[in-house]
# Entry
Amino acid sequence: MRDLPFPDATRDALISANLAVAREFMPRARAMAERLNVEWPEAFEAATRRVLEDKLGVKADWQ
# Structure
């Protein structure tokens, strides 16, 4: 497992740290859903990506 960031209490650092966590978590969660034959919430993930870009101006670049 990778070391996850411990951010400073600034907007940019917190956003960056949360995206780093998502980059580690999302591929694992998707793989687990597939192994368990659970439908992945595509619409929810797409909505999350849109909100992050629209409200925070960041690209949700997890796979």
